[in-house]
Specification:
The structure is a single chain. 36% of the residues lie in helices and 22% in strands. Helix 6 packs antiparallel against helix 11 and helix 7 (171-181) crosses helix 9. The strands form 2 sheets. Strands 14-13-12-11-7-10-9-8-15 form a 9-stranded mixed beta sheet. A 6-stranded parallel beta sheet has the order 3-2-1-4-5-6, sandwiched between helices. It has helices spanning 3-16, 27-32, 50-59, 76-86, 120-129, 144-156, 171-181, 210-213, 217-233, 320-334, 342-361, and strands spanning 41-46, 66-72, 93-94, 110-113, 133-136, 161-163, 188-198, 239-245, 258-264, 270-276, 278-288, 291-295, 306-308, 311-312, 365-366. The longest helix has 20 residues, at 342-361. It is an alpha/beta fold. It has 11 helices and 15 strands. Strand 1, helix 3 (50-59) and strand 2 (66-72) form a beta-alpha-beta unit.
Amino acid sequence: MKPGVNTSRRDFIRNGSIMAGALAISPALLAAAGASPVKKLGIALVGLGGYGGGQLAPALQQTQNCYLAGIVTGTPSKAEEWSKKYNIPQKNIYNYQNFDEIAKNPDIDIVYVVLPVSMHKEYTIRAAKAGKHVICEKPMALNAADCREMIAACKKTNRLLSIGYRLHFEPHNMEAMRLGQKNVLGKVTVIDTGNGFVYTGDPNAWRLKKALAGGGGLMDMGIYAIQAARYTLGQEPIAVKATQEKTKPELFKEVDETIFWELKFPGGQKVTGKSSYNNNWGYLRVTTEKGKFDVEPAYGYDGIDGHINGKPMNLPNINQQAAQMDDFATCVRLNKTSRVPGEEGEKDMKVIDAIYRSLDSGKWEKIG
């Protein structure tokens, strides 16, 4: 890279605050400066499944601006286990019947909805009505229309809404955003991206039920590839055509297994993507007028790597979830819109809605 490119990258990283806590108003730093201590904001996790327990709760032990203040679960044994493990008082533990009483709890500032997709809309709206700011895990909802209802509910109650797009805080993916949006290597001409894994889990899991998940590999994995194309270009696609294959119809009888698509963007770039519950994919490859860059592996919780014209990006792996939640806590404190607001989730769902329409019609479908 040229010296000027390195400098601009450092500026971008600094301005983007991709290091955990970089955007956060650190209580420790404020105390060291002689300022009054800043209260950490309390987060309640709604849904204590694999992601909440395996990623979010541990990340909240590393955050500077927020902490795990409460939980919402329908399983008494989980409530007891989490209470002991994370020292959560009984008054901050709720179930799905008494959830709305969270409105009376000053310990909880933010509700993080980590439920099956079909429940995202209900609990985002209920949390907003209870006066809490909301992080909703992706995909945001079953469709774009539901997303709009969620956005409207949060605006009506003057609550902030953010979607769990952790990769907007991840260094390599942020570098892809900079390279593509700033035309650092010239205009982007081709993007190829894919995300998926081989599903070997419970055949009766909610992810394989259309009513609960909305779809299969596309909703769960493909959304990352759609995001990557959008944030690399800094543009919104205008049309899509998609095809699919299903090699395990008994396992994926209700949801999609593998989908391939082509997106049309206003800039005329050739953009292809794919998603799967039966292939191990996870990459973003970009060709430009003056070179190439890639992020591969691209979408995991760690181990992400990237190259620019074959040379390593030399960027760190961070705790993405901690950076994401600290950033939102700062947004709440400053009453500032998140870099990944509800509208960002709606944009992805518009694309996904159009992909499913294209699978039905066999034709190009407009997005929007």
